[in-house]
Design goal:
Layout lengths: L2 E3 L5 E3 L3 E2 L6 H14 L3 E3 L7 H9 L9 E3 L7 E2 L2 E2 L1 H4 L1
Parallel strand pairs: 3-4, 4-5
Antiparallel strand pairs: 1-2, 6-7
Helix pairs in contact: 1-2
């Protein structure tokens, strides 16, 4: 899969698998596992999708090591403040 290099040197796959509107936990986990099996190495989720845990399980239960995957997520605006994002808001 082709990648693009960020300013910090990190390589990001240019094609990602989005998990928007996959709200059923079992479906989300299976979709992520299937996407990884199909060759996706960039997985996208968000707190507002309410499927981050299932996406994480799909990643954990895939046959691809985590360090070979690029995962993006978006944080609820209410969980961000002037000081940044506190870890307690993510869990």
């Amino acid at each position: 899969m082709k990648t693009v290099k960020l300013a910090n040197g990190v390589e990001v796959p240019i094609l990602g698998f989005g998990t928007f509107q996959i709200t059923d936990p079992q479906e989300a986990e299976k979709a992520v596992k299937d996407a990884i099996k199909a060759g996706y190495r960039h997985i996208d989720t968000a707190q507002s999708y309410m499927n981050e845990e299932a996406v994480g399980k799909g990643i954990a239960h895939s046959d691809v090591p985590r360090e070979e995957l690029f995962v993006t997520t978006k944080v609820w605006v209410d969980n961000v403040n002037y000081d940044g994002v506190g870890m307690s808001t993510l869990f």
